[in-house]
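The instructor's notes for this session suggest beginning with a concrete chain rather than abstract definitions. Hand out the sequence below and ask the class to guess, before any prediction is shown, which regions might be ordered.
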Amino acid sequence: MKRLKRKIEVELLKEAEDYFLELTDKMQGKFLRAFDKTESGLKGSWFEKLNSEDGIFEFRERDQEKFYRIFAFWDGESDSKTLILCTHGLDKKTNKTPKSDIERAIKIKKQYFKDKNK
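After discussion, reveal the predicted structure:
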């Protein structure tokens, strides 16, 4: 595993938090471990950039039946830390990520930076 260099904090925005709270305890635990590893500066398959130019990433977990995703983006504008802001989540039967969910994450990201820079 490769280490990242800057202090990182993972934060769940409202939709992501609502999704997270609906997950089973087991799946919540898997995501919490993924968040902790990422905050510790580790990189791995649990957190990957999507094939888009818009800087959208996803936390990825699965069980025997479904794939679970929580979409996220980076905010590195602070001098002291980098935020990873989680936008929303979904569970699905296939490994393919719906384009509509990527577009939704992009929209939330744009609104976040618009509101932040007012």
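Then share the key points. The mean pLDDT is 91. The longest strand covers residues 82-92.
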